[in-house]
Specification:
This protein has five helices and no strands. With 98 residues, it is mainly alpha-helical.
């Protein structure tokens, strides 16, 4: 094997080892706290949903003009959100998702 042929192979081998090392570090640091991270993300998503839908739910919102633009971003998760927080039917009068 010539040095020119082995260089790409060494580069590929290094890249594969580096990816395995990176994945190991990620699992070492994130693994024990995975449930905590998922719970925190869910709480942040719920807060974001309440902020965006606040005006529609009857909460006065001084930034309703700006948050109304975000409604399409949360629309796909709306049904799962209101079921998860314990509201069996849509809390919005003008929108029936279920």
């Amino acid at each position: 094997m010539t040095p020119a042929e082995s260089a790409p192979q060494r580069r590929e081998d290094f890249s594969r080892r580096w990816a395995a090392f990176r994945d190991g570090l990620h699992e070492f640091y994130v693994g024990p706290y995975r449930q905590t991270f998922l719970r925190e993300k869910r709480d942040e998503d719920d807060l974001f949903m309440i902020v965006v839908l606040g005006e529609a739910l009857g909460v006065p919102d001084p930034a309703a003009f700006y948050s109304a633009e975000l409604m399409p971003a949360v629309w796909e998760d709306f049904h799962a959100w209101h079921r998860r927080i314990g509201i069996p039917n849509s809390p919005l009068d003008h929108i029936a998702c279920c």
